[in-house]
Amino acid sequence: MKAVAKARFIHQSPRKVRQVLDVVRGKQVEQAMNTLHFMPKKAARVIEKTIHSAVANAVNREGSKVNADNLFIETAFCDEGPRSRRFKARAMGRVNIRR
């Protein structure tokens, strides 16, 4: 049985998020949550919420058949999202785009 949860449009670089994901990938949920709770990174809070959501999705979907202690993190990945673009006014009506 699989449960899926996604966190989208997180304002942090994928490289920093992947550093945290590499720590929890393949672990049991309880162990991963304890590790994330004491990790001093911003990405750890987002990943902790996402894992909590995945556990809630599994319990909601399967009901009392699911034991949260038996769940583990099979796959966890981070892709690059949309970049923010800001415009800087230049001379003669031109614009430079800052990414």
Structure characterization notes:
By secondary structure, the protein is mostly helical. It has one domain (14-98): Alpha-Beta Complex (Ribosomal Protein L22, Chain A). The chain has three helices and two strands; from the N terminus they run αααββ. A two-stranded antiparallel ribbon has the order 1-2. A hairpin with a 5-residue loop joins strand 1 (86-89) and strand 2 (95-98). The longest helix has 21 residues, at 42-62. The radius of gyration is 18 Å and the shape is elongated.
Spatial separation of the terminal alpha carbons: 41 Å
Number of helical elements:
3
The CATH homologous superfamily is named Ribosomal protein L22/L17
* Biggest sheet, spatial arrangement of strands: 1-2
| Rg, nearest Å | 18 Å
CATH architecture label: Alpha-Beta Complex
> From the helix content, strand content and strand pairing, which structural class follows?
mainly alpha
Q: How would you spell out the order of helices and strands? A: HHHEE
What CATH calls the topology is Ribosomal Protein L22, Chain A
Nearest-integer average pLDDT: 90
Count of structural domains = 1
Indicate the percent of residues in helices.
Answer: 40-55%
Tell me about the largest β-sheet.
Answer: 2 strands, antiparallel
Which band does the percent of strand residues land in?
A: 5-15%
C-alpha geometry: elongated
Tell me how many strands there are: 2
Low confidence ranges: none
CATH class: Alpha Beta
